[in-house]
Amino acid sequence: MSAAPVILWYRDDFRLSDHAPLRAAVASGAPIIPLYVLDDETPGPWRLGGASRWWLHHSLAALAADLSARGGRLVIRRGDACAVIRQLARECQAQALYFHRGYTPAEADLERRLWRELGDSLEVRRFRGRLLVEPEQVKTGAGEPFKVFTPFWRACLSLPEPEAPAPAPERLAPPPPEVTGLDLDDLALLPRTPDWAGGLRDNWRPGEAGAWERLTAFLDAAVVGYAADRDLPGHPGTSRLSPHLHFGEISPRQVWHAVRGLQAGYAAATKGGDAFLREVGWREFCQHLLHHWPRLPTEPFNPRFAHFPWREDEAAFGAWRRGQTGYPLVDAGMRELWHTGWMHNRVRMVVASFLVKHLLVPWQRGQDWFWDTLVDADLANNAGSWQWVAGCGADAAPYFRIFNPVLQGQKFDARGDYVRRWVPELRRLPDRDLHAPFAAGQASLAAAGVRLGVDYPAPLVEHDFARQRALAALATLREA
DNA sequence: TGAAATGTTGGGGCG
DNA sequence: ACGCCCCAACATTTC
Fold this sequence. Notes:
The protein folds into 3 domains: 6-129, HUPs (Rossmann fold, 3-Layer(aba) Sandwich); 131-164 and 210-292, Alpha Horseshoe (Serine Threonine Protein Phosphatase 5, Tetratricopeptide repeat), CATH 1.25.40.80; 303-475, DNA Cyclobutane Dipyrimidine Photolyase, subunit A, domain 3 (Orthogonal Bundle). The chain has 480 residues and is mostly helical. β4 (96-100), α4 (105-118) and β5 form a beta-alpha-beta unit. A 5-stranded parallel sheet has the order 3-2-1-4-5, sandwiched between helices. 48% of the residues lie in helices and 5% in strands.
């Protein structure tokens, strides 16, 4: 007579190592039902985007394989998670439900419902593990949540060191054989007609092993120069861990300890490692912000911006999405995003600033596009970062800080590697004209085979005009 | 995790 | 030799 099974509910924590709910399930000695529930039906603005669906498919495939290798079996179902779990628990007489705490409003709601509806019949246990620091662990002197990053991060760093991560269990007891689920393919997560995922396949390896491959490669090479090189989009100076962290294929605690471990024996990694962990800190900050301000993805954190005179300009928004603004750095970024599902962070700031300030398109529209196209699309990071760029967020860049896309290109892509890669029609322009083809001489354009307005668009707006217009729009907020 | 405008300074050309 | 102007180069302020 085997014990009643434990349901191990997976959601954006698709790993076996450093996984407290899994460890507890193994320790219970009971059969384990690793469960993933795709909720595609519940209406809501944050249904998974296309790139996220692609990643999810492959991450689930990797998780299923990793579980099988240890004797387990992933069970996939679809529908409202609460209803699915209730049904499954009834089917197999489960004794318990273990899962990681989530921080989005929808996840928090779901957890409350689970407790209310199933708490009497099941042992419902929630674990921490998707963040370094729980929202309740850090508060300002006044007892409020932090609204400024630097003191937030200082408070995080003053806490005791995060626990050392635990290894993956060697074996786990399989679910009862009568428990069935869907095939991964039944979820229809992959793009079909057309299959636009070629660039994603070429650039990414979803899953726990792929996450460690990235982290290891980063710590072996790029972390030493990270503080400066992370700003160069043409240089492989960043970790590219963001999608792996979003899907929980690696935990921030594992990243933390890997970096600290390296720093302990290798002084050259001190500065870069700290700068890198600070970026992990921004992730924590955004997750905390969303926890405390659930309307972060829809409403400006700074309420004054509710009256900002945004423009509805579908043509300009379309040109931005397609990478046809006439500013090479902006266009390179948007094309990198479309092709690979990712964009270098420096360029994310520039393209976002361009949309919000040069075009005056609401930041929510940009957020929507990123949500659909980024493999690391994350509700908290996306909302926090767009609000930061737009100037209405917590600890935001002041609205009047307007990036000049030409200067940003000359400064961070001086040799043009990045622009030439993603905007090949400009490849033959000399460095001095590459970031401003509209200002190049006729001879230079002709020599490079570029006809403005034919091979490459003229600028959507002129920078000086757009800058003045954005500042004028901001001025209306002060009057209001 | 800016950029542009404005102010200041100091070297050098020139009458 | 001297004052004047120009204008980088740098600093400060403003948006």
